[in-house]
Write a structure and sequence with these properties.
mainly alpha, 1 helix
Length: 48
Amino acid sequence: MFLLIRVLFYLSILAGLAFGALYALGALVEPEPREIVIQVPMPKPRGS
């Protein structure tokens, strides 16, 4: 029983660290807006 509690404790610590890292990335990192240009080729006509 003690092993189960210890494993759950370590898993909760790892989950808390992952959640904290994701929250920090979402709250502190701001993306830089930039213009994106994509060239779209024209479709070929069907009778050629």
